[in-house]
Amino acid sequence: MSVFSHPEFDGHEHVAFHHDAASGLRAIIAVHNTRLGCGLGGCRMFPYGSDDEALTDVLRLSRGMTYKAALAGLPQGGGKSVIIGDPRRDKTPQLIRAMGRFVDMLGGRYVVAEDSGTSVPDIRLMAEVTRHIGGLADEASVAAGRTGDPSPATALGTFIGLRAAVRAALGRDDLRGLRVAIQGVGNVGYRLAKHLHDAGAVLWVTDLHAPAVDRAVAEFGATAVAMDAIHALDVDVFAPCALGAILNERSIPQIRAKVIAGAANNQLATPADGRRVLEQGLLYAPDYVINAGGIIDIHYEGPGYDEAVVHAHLQRIGLTLSEIFERSKTSGQPTGEIADVMAEAIFRR
Length: 349
Ligand code: NAD
Fold this sequence. Notes:
By secondary structure, the protein is an alpha/beta fold. It contains 12 helices and 11 strands. The protein has helices at about 50-70, 95-105, 120-125, 140-145, 150-170, 185-200, 210-220, 270-280, 285-290, 295-300, 305-330, 335-345, and strands at about 15-20, 25-35, 40-45, 75-85, 110-115, 180-185, 200-205, 225, 235-240, 260, 285. The longest helix is centred in the C-terminal third of the chain and has 25 residues, at about 305-330.
């Protein structure tokens, strides 16, 4: 496994590996760029098939955070961490504390928050051993019923972005009767489903975890579909809210929706897939733009947190996406490439 010559290395400032024998922790922290501020990003716990798979994921995710923070207008850089393991089987308080100590070793170059496979209680445990944490509410916010979980803001931002995409591709503002297929109804996908249901959309859902599907069926009248069928349904919008690389050479020709707008990170398997999506006449909302709600929320976390200010910032996701869609339409360039150029103009300035 090489790091400096890894295809996803992309000039990372820092990549650190850590093993803690006592807890069994095996983890990687990647810090892509700190030009605008410390490398902020979630800690993902996933049963990776190999170390190389974990490295590829953390490098891609970390780079995405630099671009995400820049386009979200935040004074932050990009970083990410991964724990190799199954969160439902391997997670222990000892392991999570060991991860917190690992974060601490980087001295604030990396600030950790929640991601797929980790949650607020995990970040709370890490906070016992490091102060370099985001995504935790202060006492006043906790008293007001908030936890610091960024998922609600990510889901609301994704909903705002999805609306902008539907407006651009289908020319409609009214979501009543809009047909949406959601892949993954976990922390974000479930809340996105709720926003869509409240707006009158009709839903199809799938998830690896059967109870998550049952909940969406019971609460939103969603139709459950097989995992390998969700992307190919005859719907208006396909919303990937599970894991990455869902938009690839094999899946794209099967997509029948006109809009792809979901919260999952790294949806395009390769940059060529961005062009493939465009050539097929699909409007793709670049993942790191539409799912920036969580990082925006984390930015405002702490004393004086004001939900109205956060919501106003989340609305900017829709405006940024509308600009990307417009530029893509006039230039014929894929939306992901347009977003990259816009972000680079900010963090390389
Ligand atoms: P989560 O783990 O709570 O939910 C993901 C869901 O997807 C789970 O229920 C899981 O069982 C399901 N899943 C996994 N593989 C699947 C597959 N192949 N087919 C169908 N379902 C599958 O995670 P989350 O916090 O909801 O995040 C979802 C996505 O959004 C991730 O890609 C994450 O990186 C991204 N994201 C999350 C946030 C956030 O604030 N939580 C912010 C930005 C981006």
